[in-house]
Amino acid sequence: MTRLAVELANTGTLDQHGELVAAFFAEHDITAPPDGDFGALPDLVRAALAQSVDGEAPDAAHQLLRAYPPEMHLSDHDGLGAWHVHFSRNGTPPERWLGQLVAAELALLAAGDPAVTLGRCAAAGCGRYFVDQSRNRTRRFCSNACASRTTVAAYRARTAKNTEGPGND
User: Fold this and answer.
1) What 8-state DSSP symbol labels residue 29?
2) What are 89-106's pLDDT values in tens digits?
3) Are 140 and 122 in contact, with CB atoms under 8 Å apart?
4) Long-range contacts for 55-60 (Cβ within 8 Å, ≥24 apart)?
5) What is the residue-wise DSSP string for 66-79?
6) Pairing mode of beta strands 73-75, 84-86
7) Strand ranges (E), 28-106
8) Is residue 87 exposed (0-12), middle (13-18) or buried (19+ Cβ within 10 Å)?
């Protein structure tokens, strides 16, 4: 669920053709908006993620809970007796369904859910959010591309500094 919040914050929408989103929406009988428009929800989610990553008060998570109050209930939608908690009813309009789901998840995160670690990419000019699933929860970049770009830039800066030193005129 946190991955959906991160994708929504990073892109402003959800890739309806992506495997994760398509399966999740279909499983819960949700029809994604055809234009991918989730209203003001992406901005509010982005603010909540920023506050979480920066260790600030969870004002945006509170706003999410007020705007999209979760409807907690137990579900066995797969019919296998595997009861689990849902935060929105199947078939709910997409913005409301996603808002309720994300509001509950970000509230749990603000309360200190130890199973989830969020981060913001440390690459210059990026700033995308990610869910850190690394073993020691010390991931710094959203992707290998950002990590490589940062490493190459640091190497080039060191190399340039060394070639500009004394005796290299």
Assistant:
1) T
2) 988 888 999 999 999 999
3) yes
4) 58/106, 58/107, 58/110, 60/106
5) HHS----EEE-TTS
6) antiparallel
7) 73-75, 84-86
8) buried
